[in-house]
Specification:
Layout lengths: L3 E7 L4 E7 L5 H13 L10 H10 L22 H4 L5 H10 L12 H14 L43
Antiparallel strand pairs: 1-2
């Protein structure tokens, strides 16, 4: 229920707290959530299922490539420096800007994943769906950016270190 909170970035060894204003009780949060659900043509009788609502909201945080149908533009459409991505410190400013553009993507940055999470959290809370942001520092993913985690073993069931070297877990 707190409108002011912290989002943690950095690493597990050196976490960095960023203050964030979630603004879930502001009119812009509720209007944006309703506008997204209306554009998705979700019938009113289906708006009682939080899992459906959350899927729709999450799908509209970032635009699809080549479109302006999300709150943030697609990272494929923009070449933005990290300083521009870090200019947002509240969901309120993002959502007001989105509404002023009549539901078109923000100009000037595609945001970071933590900003995307904060906006989704604000929209969810505005609709009465409890939500919080959890920071994951050491996730089980590959360092080369691929999504699959293949682990290679030898014939004696020992991991092959040279083939598994890019795993972080």
């Amino acid at each position: 229920m707190n409108e002011h909170g912290q989002i943690y970035l950095g690493s597990s060894e050196k976490p960095q707290a960023i203050p964030w204003y979630f603004a879930q009780f502001e009119r812009s949060a509720l209007l944006t959530a309703f506008a997204i659900l209306d554009r998705a043509q979700l019938p009113v009788q289906n708006r009682i299922d939080p899992s459906v609502i959350l899927r729709i909201l999450a799908s509209k945080i970032c635009s699809n490539p080549g479109t302006n149908n999300g709150i943030f533009p697609s990272s494929f459409n923009t070449q933005i420096t990290s300083s521009q991505n870090n200019c947002y410190t509240s969901s309120s400013s993002i959502l007001k800007q989105y509404l002023s553009f009549n539901g078109r993507s923000l100009q000037g940055g595609n945001g970071n994943n933590w900003q995307h999470a904060a906006v989704l959290c604000s929209l969810s809370r505005s609709l009465g769906i409890p939500c919080r942001i959890v920071t994951v520092y050491n996730a089980a993913c590959r360092a080369d950016g691929t999504e699959n985690n293949d682990v290679h073993w030898d014939t004696k069931q020992r991991p092959l270190k040279q083939l598994n070297s890019d795993l972080i877990w």
